[in-house]
Structures are given as C-alpha cells and as structure tokens.
Amino acid sequence: MSAKKSAEPSPEAIARSERQRLAAEEGARAIADVERQAIDVRKNMARLRELREAKEAAEQAAEASLRASLSAPAPKKRARKSPG
Length: 84
What we know:
mainly alpha
C-alpha cells in the first residue's frame, strides 16, 4: 500500500498549480486596482475640501464686508406726543 511519488507531477497537479498561480496574479492585480482607486478618491476628496473651504472663506469675507459697510443704524427720533 505504499505508493512511491513519481518525480513528474500528474496533469491534474499541473493544472491545479496553474489555476492557483493565475488566481494569485489576478488577486494581486485586483488589490493594486483597489488601492489606485482609493488614492484617486482621497485626492478628489482633498480637492473638494479645498474648494469648499475657499468658498466658505469667501462667503465669510463677503459677509464681514457687508456688515462693515452697513454701519449700525442711527437711532430713530421719537415723535413727541402732543399734549392733549
């Protein structure tokens, strides 16, 4: 019952090792693709954040200049009630 292993692998073993090699290569490509996409997403998020912050800063500056140009309104003079 002791069978010697031959030095030459069987066709099934060759096919299995080839499938494993291809799967490993595809997995590495998929991981690299996901990492590239993640980098692209982070770059886009940073770009959008910069745009939003610049817009907010411009809005705040415009609001501050509007407040400065519209000085406090002068108090209204009271009309005296006429006696009687």
